[in-house]
Amino acid sequence: MSAQRMTLEPSNSLRLSSLGRSLRLAAGLIALAIPLSGCGTGALWDKFTQKDDTFNEEPADKLYNEGLYLMNQRKDNKAASKKFEEVDRQHPYSDWARKSLLMSAYSFYNQGDYDSCIGAATRYVTLHPGSPDAAYAQYLIAASHYDQIPDISRDQARTEKAIAALEEVIRKYPTSEYSNSAKAKLEGARDQLAGKEMDVGRYYMERRDYTAAINRFKTVVTRYQTTRHVEEALARLTEAYMSIGIVGEAQTAAAVLGHNFPDSRWYKDAYNLVKSGGLEPSENKGSYISRAFKKMGLG
């Protein structure tokens, strides 16, 4: 019996050892499976078993008309712009996408989201330059810049952009219905730049820096003769030139002012100033002041 036991014990020990290794292997696989399931195995399985309904394509005309309804009836331009953008996303090569891009720009403009309007309208002009609506898209770009013109105490970079965009409308689409409106806005933008020059010029006058002041008023006279600031600019030039003893230019400024704006209160001031020096307003035809007004047909 003892010999028989001796032959059985090693055999049992071997089986137990093999069983232990199998159990350890199984435990290792289970341990490996646990972090894998934590890393999204369930979510991965769901992707195979669940239906993906995150994207439902809708007809382009339906989306477009919903956008029009939201914009015109509900006055919800933000929601409308999303509908128009959805047309472009779902049907990028359709005619509805072209129309929606322009309406998207318009809805952004109505929201006061000028940068988005400029972006959408610029894209329209780039993609559809020959479209009958390209003029309107260009006008929206200009109007967006124009509506952001700051007061004269601030930097006028936005005004310069507005002028460039408005001139583009007039140059590219001179016979369009938007050309006249662009011209009116252009005068307003130019008047703003002239006002900025006048503001700085007055600053220098108060500090008796007459040369710097003259440069500012000269800009108004040579570049912005059709703005409402030109009368004061001529009067200020008369004052500044008299102050530094360049009486010829002072007389010319006063004479041009009187010729073009005889009823202006600024002319009365300029006239009296010249008279106080024992002089009369007298135009020097070779002066830049005279040439600037003759070039504009005002002299």
Short description:
The protein has 299 residues and is mainly alpha-helical.
Please give a structural write-up:
This protein has 299 residues and is mostly helical. It is 76% helix and 0% strand. The chain is built from 13 helices and no strands. The model is unreliable at 1-41 and 44-49 (pLDDT under 50).
What's the layout of helices and strands?
Elements lengths: L1 H48 L10 H13 L4 H14 L4 H17 L2 H14 L6 H13 L10 H16 L6 H28 L3 H14 L6 H15 L2 H14 L4 H12 L11 H8 L4
pLDDT averaged residue by residue: 85
Please state the CA-atom Rg, rounded to the nearest Å. 39 Å
Element string (H = helix, E = strand): HHHHHHHHHHHHH
Helix fraction?
over 70%
The amount of beta strand, in percent, is under 5%
Shape: elongated
Q: Spans with pLDDT under 50 lasting ≥5 residues?
A: 1-41, 44-49
Helix count from the secondary structure assignment: 13
Termini Cα gap: 140 Å
**Largest beta-sheet details:** none
* Structural class determined from secondary elements: mainly alpha
Q: Count every beta strand, where a strand is a DSSP E run of 2 or more residues.
A: 0
